[in-house]
Amino acid sequence: MTGQRNEEALRQAPETRTRNGAGDIKVLPEPPGLPDPLPEPAVSDLRLETVLAALSDPLRLRIVRKLLLESEDFDHTCGWFGLDRPKSSLTHHFRALREAGITRQRQYGLERRSHVRVADLNSRFPGLLDLVADWTPPTD
Question: Per-residue confidence at 140, pLDDT binned at 50, 70, 90?
Answer without folding.
Answer: low
